[in-house]
Amino acid sequence: MDTAIGSIPAATDAAQPAPSSSAPKEATLGRHLARRLAEVGARDVFTVPGDFNLTLLDELEAETGSTGVRLVGCCNELNAAYAADGYARARGGGVGACAVTFTVGGLSAINAVAGAFSENLPVVCIVGGPNSNDYGSNRILHHTIGLPDFTQELRCFQTVTCYQAVVNNLEDAHEQIDTAISTAIRESKPVYISISCNLPSIPHPTFSRHPVPFFLSPRLSNQMNLEAAVEAAAAFLNKAVKPVLVGGPKMRVSKACKAFVELADACGYPVAVMPSAKGLVPEHHSRFIGTYWGAVSTPFCAEIVESADAYLFAGPIFNDYSSVGYSLLLKKEKAIIVQPERVVIGHGPAFGCVLMKDFLHALATRLKKNTAAYENYRRIYVPPGEPLSSEPGEPLRVNILFKHVQAMLSGNSAIIAETGDSWFNCQKLKLPEGCGYEFQMQYGSIGWSVGATLGYAQAAKDKRIIACIGDGSFQVTAQEVSTMLRWGQNNIIFLINNGGYTIEVEIHDGPYNVIKNWNYTGLVEAFHNGEGKCYTAKVGNCMLYYYAITVSLVTVAIDILILCLQVRTEEELKEALKEALGPKKDCLCFIEVIVHKDDTSKELLEWGSRVSAANSRPPNPQ
Q1: For 474-497, what is each residue's pLDDT tens digit?
Q2: Is 498 a catalytic residue?
Q3: Strand ordering across the sheet containing 436-439
Q4: Mean pLDDT over residues 115-124, rounded?
Q5: Is 411 an annotated catalytic residue?
Q6: Is 509 a catalytic residue?
Q7: Fewer Cβ neighbours under 10 Å: the N or C end of the chain?
Q8: Could you give the maximum distance between any two Cα atoms of the chain, in Å?
Q9: Is-cis flag, bond preceding 275, omega within 30?
Q10: Model pTM?
């Protein structure tokens, strides 16, 4: 049958089979997807509407109650995927989800999905795809690069997801969706699901009953390898004079944090964490000695770790950032490296098919108690001093700010640290029991923290989120603060304004690291846009590179109240925080700290110079 150019094919040409009349109206693909997401704990789906996903969003929203999800509309797709990342983190590496439109939405979200991949987070990226009848039609669609090939987006996602499902017919949709979500959980990596725009609202018999709960076959250690690995590791560590334990970021994906603490309790070794593992090990542990980060470690931590004659690293990632430009003073022959499914002792032997949590649990029963390294630590340890209180009228300093941040922390709070100087200042914070901590060290995408704060707060209703964000990073994703207001979040955002990309300055300075200064409190007022009541009061005058602080307290209720105050000293900061933690504890608080461009941590200066040296190595001779 001939079809005219630009015409719609007749019904007989359609690739999509007619739905079964026996399927109830709620047995649709979209509602099945909603039920599956709810089942795995992704009760909030971060969305940006587009013409290819509108019907899908209708169906996701139609599934209500205990089996349904809630749509959280975001300002753009990048932020939606960052929010899914933060949501997954708040749930201890559980599932987060975002839903966007075809290609223009997917390729906008892909940067955040890549970050989730690097951090081992099971983010489900759902894309509304082309009409099922358009596949194989040789047609050109909008939201594409102008070729009759719909696989561009799919091919891009193949390198940053562990599974890709293209759902363009109902017969295998059930299987594809279930396989994608279960693979995300099993691999703890993002997955991509594309759903043709004409399918979500069509009933089908495969969706007519509540889905059978997911059951993932548990991963098991090879018992012979496990026993051999434990025996070899125990012999290695028991002959050491001053061994230490260091936790790494892959403990989360291995679900091995409790086993690591169990091992620490049993062996008596001092316990440190790599910077990207901060928050995975309780810092109130009696033998916790801080963050091991080479030359920028917690005081006295590197001395103990690097002088040890044996060290066990659980789930480490040694990249140029975590190794401070590959400058760690560690020796491979002294190390036991425990990865999620592999144990390597010194230069060998290596034991595969050994799960980290099984190995740590078994090793705890085989080690002799040895507190020598911790006793050495106690001999050299000097308690850190607190910054002196500012004189009356003295401009505020960053170390004074973080002294007050430390005082704010409790088990009901969580810290989100953005890429930049906040990495180093937040590493110094002592986390109370139950206090969360997140930052994105492996991928290091500036702007991540704004969307991640939104997502984390949606999942962790029992915590108040404290986000520390630089001005350069904030300008990338600032608009998602409006979504926080919309959803009534009471986050505290410290906007640290030093007029540019400070972390880049320390690696390689140039005029491109200076950015346009914004009126950040005016921006919050623009997000408010006169809805409800708005009271503002501004006192004093701020100039960039002089110290000052601006506080915006935003109450979200039936009426929206914004109170903008300008404070320039520690005393004024105390008053602002007293309000934020007292009468305005249910408000979103936006705190702008304008600091001198040179008011940076000494750790950042040292780290930046070493990373710069690593980046500047000349090519190897041919």
Answers
A1: 999 999 999 998 998 999 999 888
A2: yes
A3: 436-439, 413-417, 464-470, 492-497, 588-594, 548-556, 560-567, 535-536
A4: 98
A5: no
A6: no
A7: C
A8: 89
A9: no
A10: 0.91
Active site residue 385: no
The pair of structure tokens assigned to 273 is 């964490």
Instruction: Say what the pLDDT of residue 545 is.
Output: 30
Q: Across the chain, what does the average pLDDT equal?
A: 88
- Tell me phi and psi for residue 331, to 5 degrees: -120, 130
φ/ψ of residue 157, rounded to 5: -75, -15
User: Which residue out of 61, 73, 94, 143 is catalytically annotated?
Assistant: 143
CA proximity to 51, closest of 125, 103, 15? 103
Give 294's DSSP letter.
Answer: G
Active site residue 174: no
Residue 608 near residue 506, CB atoms below 8 Å = yes
Three-point CA angle 605, 611, 615, nearest 5°: 140
**How far apart are the two ends of the chain, measured CA to CA in Å?**
63
pLDDT in the model for residue 553:
35
Contact criterion met (CB below 8 Å) for 209 and 176: no
134, 153, 438, 471: the active-site residue: 471
- Enter the DSSP assignment of 569: B
Annotated binding site for Mg(2+): 471, 498, 500
Which tokens go with 260? 């690591």
Q: Which of 168, 425, 490, 498 is the catalytic position?
A: 498
pLDDT the model gives residue 24: 65
CA pair distance 68, 176, nearest whole angstrom: 20
Give the phi and the psi of residue 138 in degrees, each rounded to 5: 65, 25
Q: Is 317 helix (H, G, I), strand (E, B) or coil?
A: coil
| Residues 74, 102 contacting (CB under 8 angstroms) | no
Q: pLDDT per residue over 579-602, tens digit each?
A: 889 888 888 888 888 887 788 888
Active-site residue, from 94, 434, 444, 488? 444
Q: Does the pLDDT of residue 96 top 70, yes or no?
A: yes
The yes-or-no answer on residue 596 being catalytic is no
SS3 309: coil
Q: What is the mean pLDDT of residues 100-114?
A: 97
Contact predicate 502/470, CB 8 Å: yes
Q: Is residue 536 scored above 70 in pLDDT?
A: no
Marked catalytic residue, from 500, 506, 570, 592: 500
CA 160 to CA 155: how far, in whole Å? 10
- Which of 13, 136, 142, 522 is labelled catalytic? 142
Tokens of 5: 């150019």
504 is catalytic: yes
**What is the chain's alpha carbon radius of gyration, rounded to the nearest angstrom?**
26
Residue with tokens 């390729």: 107
CB neighbours of 358 closer than 8 A, spacing ≥ 6? 221, 226, 259
